Amino acid sequence: MINLLPSDIRQNYVYARRNTSLFRWSLLLLLSIAGVGVIVAGGLFYINKSINDYTANNAKAQQALKDQKIDDVQKQVQAISGSLKLVVQVLSKEVLFSKLITKIGAAIPAKATLTDLNISKTQGGIDLTAVAKDYNTATQVQVNLQDPANKIFDKADLIGITCNTSTTTDANYPCTVTIRAQFTKNNPYLFISSSGSTSP
After folding, report:
1. Fewer Cβ neighbours under 10 Å: the N or C end of the chain?
2. Are 103 and 115 in contact (CB under 8 A)?
3. Closest by alpha carbon to 148, among 102, 116, 107?
4. Which residues on neighbouring strands pair with residue 131, listed in sequence order?
5. 64 in a domain, yes or no?
6. Which of 74-83, 97-106, 187-196 has the lowest mean pLDDT?
7. Under a CB-based contact definition with an 8 Å cutoff, are residues 112 and 93 in contact?
């Protein structure tokens, strides 16, 4: 087909087609830029909202912890934990403590009987009370407990001896002796030694 249009009109058609194509591409570019802008704006809005929500939730959580007095609860838990550790330690060494009682009983003279002992602390000393048939046996209790061969006490101080023959006292053991004794270092019969370490 032969185009008989004048050259200037043909040129105008060519430029018109080019302008139409450029317009379409420009419109697509603007729409793409607008879409990217919308996505970026939405992302920023979402991020800011998430940050604000996290900050608010964090503040609420901190306030809730303060209201629940979590620090006091943690201190109580630590105190209970320490007590449980001590109980477990004592129970695990109970056999050694039983051996200590047996050893003390073996040191008591034949005419005396151990009636009471009081350990106020696991380290240090012990108060013992025994009854005896006579005054001499009562003093012998103190001598026997202080004997280094027993490996129980470094010293045993005599607190007092009372002898009473009244009807209110056991006629077989009229004398009562009270002794305060100090454990030896690294006592093999004590579940916690005086140095603070547990016996094997």
Report:
1. N
2. no
3. 107
4. 113, 176
5. no
6. 187-196
7. no
